[in-house]
Amino acid sequence: MNRRRTPRPPSWLPVDPYLLALIGTVVIAALLPASGAAAEVAGGASTGAVALLFFLYGVRLSTREALDGLKHWRLHTAVLGCTFVVFPLLGLAARGLVPFVLTPQLYSGLLFLCLVPSTIQSSIAFTSMARGNVPAAICAGSFSSLAGIVITPLLAALLIGGGQAGFSGDSLLKIGAQLLLPFVAGQLLRRWVSGFLSRHKRLLSVVDRGSILLVVYTAFSEGMVAGVWHQVTPARLAALLGVEAVLLAVMLTLSWYGGKRLGFGREDRIALQFAGSKKSLAAGLPMASVLFGAHASLAVLPLMLFHQTQLMVCAVIAKRRSRDPLPKEAAGDEMARARPAARPAALR
Hints:
The protein is an all-alpha fold and 348 residues long. The chain has helices at 17-31, 37-60, 63-69, 73-93, 104-115, 121-129, 134-159, 169-188, 190-199, 201-226, 234-261, 266-276, 281-292, 296-321, 328-338.
């Protein structure tokens, strides 16, 4: 008797439970949005959660690794150029899609997406999977996040302006207090806290994802209360997904072949491709909440869609890169690391 097999997605298509959690959070915000006193409590809780998140980022980044990473300044400059120069230029070029493909509100969110710093965790994970330069990916993602605390609000003020982004000196101070100060505190307290966190890695994952879900709930609750969701139709969402797919494909191609033109080796090109083509949901959400206020839900929608798209596409690329034949020297080094060390004669 043949049993029916449960259909499973292809192995190259990652089913991310976190995506389901994000969708569920949006649904909850649509059905039960926080308003009044509850909105104030949710806003305060999300601010505290993001501050804790960046404190943990500061604890996890080894100061020695950061200083060693500065020696590879050409690679980090290339990553920053992709993140804060090429991405914004492509975002500005997409202005021609308004109003035929994108609404002005969705375009503002798309442009904000192009201004957000690179991600840290997924860049490291995919670089490691593809056998790239993992230390460089760690430093590049960290440097990008730190630079984005200042550069992203300034670029938002310059390119988006006062129509959507409520930029001011006060908003820059809020972003610095919420993101930069906790990161610095984490660096200062690292020697006392890092041991505890290394023994409780599951706690880090809960804080990482829980804080983002809380910010998503707060932002989408504000959007529901303000009544901004009537501006989005399924056709516009489909168009947005198509535009973001093209944007990601262009950045993946430019970062890979641009790294070759700059003379980087295979491992550095992998780090450049994954760190230079990705955008951080963790850094972008709190910034959008400060800069866009009640319109933050529409502003972060393109970022949320791009986040999942980049995870799925980069997972496929990383898996294929992991099967690439290594140069002879690199292959020899990898075999040497995998070979067990000879035991002393006394233990034989």
